[in-house]
Design brief:
The protein contains ten helices and eleven strands. It has 281 residues and is of the alpha/beta class. A seven-stranded mixed beta sheet has the order 5-6-7-8-9-10-11, with helices on both faces. The chain is globular, with a radius of gyration of 22 Å. It starts with a helix and ends with a helix.
């Protein structure tokens, strides 16, 4: 009887060393409970067909989706931030910064690239939420500024894909200065009559929303994206009123005129090429 409880007899249970574990990442489950194979998810540009849920993705995925044959040239890849304020908290900024670099394989929270969309040139600056919440520090601002200069040099349109928790608190004033810096640089782009397309994804908040994310000649957004400046609790305490349901979603913002279009990620290349041709003509 004891052998039964201990499962010592062969055949009653499979020895641990013989068990076949299910590989991690084989399936993806959307918030609504729809399950899809990760290979099929990739084929659908990381959108769940059953409910249209857009999974958060990074710059590498966006570049491969948007550019022709996924080919592009990365710009200003080696820019890194220092620690000018010697910020110390539960973990030193330098330690967290290096840890994020090792974890993500990126230098900072934004990557810039140059390539073509159906034969038309386009500079893209794309934020990565996995790098300290996509926070905007001095490197993010500098990369956007240099991307604008590069777009002017190449006489190419600029697209910024926003995905951020806002300003990077560890850089304090240096981070807040990027709001004015990027806005001023976009004025230079406008003077050269080059279009700027802003693509807001989930989430786009804080100082990013308050600066370059909402300054596009065309402001686009993904379905269901969280877009706002402050959190609902802060807003409610400030105005002293209950907030409408879903007031910080891309759908609500479209209804109230804050953005121009909502574009499904599966259609982004087609829609972008139409926009670029329109601007060219």
């Amino acid at each position: 009887m004891s052998s039964w409880f201990r499962r010592m007899k062969k055949g009653i249970t499979t020895p641990t060393k013989e068990k076949k574990e299910t590989p991690d990442g084989l399936w993806f489950k959307s918030p609504e409970g729809n399950i899809i194979e990760t290979s099929e998810l990739r084929e659908n540009n990381y959108v769940v067909p059953a409910d249209g849920y857009h999974k958060r993705i990074g710059s590498e995925e966006y570049f491969s989706i948007i550019y022709d044959e996924g080919k592009y040239t990365e710009l200003f890849a080696n820019l890194e931030s220092g620690d000018p304020l010697k910020f110390e908290d539960t973990k030193k900024y330098t330690e967290r910064y290096k840890s994020s670099q090792k974890k993500t394989g990126m230098k900072d929270a934004l990557r810039s690239a140059y390539g073509e969309v159906e034969g038309l040139p386009l500079v893209i600056a794309c934020m990565d939420f996995n790098f300290i919440g996509g926070s905007m520090g001095s490197v993010v601002g500098e990369k956007i500024a240099r991307s604008i200069d590069y777009a002017i040099e190449k006489k190419a349109p600029l697209m910024i894909i926003s995905k951020s928790g806002g300003a990077r608190m560890m850089e304090a004033a240096f981070s807040l200065m990027q709001m004015a810096k990027t806005s001023a640089k976009l004025t230079q782009l406008a003077k050269h009559k080059l279009p700027y397309i802003s693509y807001l994804t989930d989430p786009t908040t804080g100082g990013v929303t308050a600066s370059f994310a909402m300054l596009g000649d065309v402001n686009l957004a993904e379905p269901g994206a969280l877009i706002g400046f402050a959190g609902p609790r802060v807003i409610k305490e400030t105005i002293g009123k209950d907030l409408p349901e879903g007031f910080q979603t891309s759908e609500f913002l479209l209804e109230h005129g804050f953005i121009d279009y909502i574009i499904d990620r599966r259609e982004i290349r087609e829609q972008l090429s139409q926009l670029l041709r329109m601007f060219k003509n």
